[in-house]
Amino acid sequence: MVSAPAVEHADKYNDPRVKVTWRGVWLGVGVVMFAIIATALSVTLRRTQLKRTTQYFGAETILALQLGEKIQMLARGSSSFEPIELTGTPGLGHLRRALLDDRHYDWTTTTSKPVSELCGGDDVYCVQLLIMDPSAKRFQDVRLDLELNSGWVGLANADHRVQVTQRVQPALKHFLSTLKNVKQQSYDDRK
């Protein structure tokens, strides 16, 4: 008769040196609770704040910035370049967030003049973002005018503008300038 093989390292599964104490249990519970609280705070603090931007631009513009299927950058004022398709561009999510978040605007600079009023000089760099939703048609086309040297933003058909903060202004200008200077290629044109 063949005997059953002995279990290797039986002491591994029943080690008398390991002792679970109440202190260890409470320490584990504390670590789990800390992780839950830290996660909740992180989500809450990183959430895009939309209260002031919704009041300023309107709910349709916010919806367009969040869900716009197609975005183009057009020349305004003394700027001249062919329309640039931004849809699917790396970094477009950052652009959307920069234009959406309340904390990215200096609300004390709000004035009742349109951005287009600033776009007349030679040293001024103005663009317009055209945001469309041709498939789902959840909103009408939205046009945002941006004066990038000073960081002014406003709706193209509105008589008010607001300035982005000093932290956001150079990033916004750099991102859109880079896109303007890079030759756009479609998949058909690539080699």
Written account of the structure:
By secondary structure, this protein is of the alpha+beta class. 36% of the residues lie in helices and 19% in strands. β6 (152-155) and β7 form a beta hairpin. α3 packs across α4.
Ordered list of secondary-structure elements with their pairings:
Layout: H1 10-13, H2 22-46, H3 51-57, H4 59-67, E1 70-76, E2 84-85, H5 92-100, E3 105-111, E4 126-132, E5 142-147, E6 152-155, E7 161-164, H6 168-181
Antiparallel strand pairs: 1-2, 1-4, 3-7, 4-5, 5-6, 6-7
Helix pairs in contact: 3-4
Name a few traits of the molecule.
6 helices; alpha+beta; 7-stranded antiparallel beta sheet; 191 residues
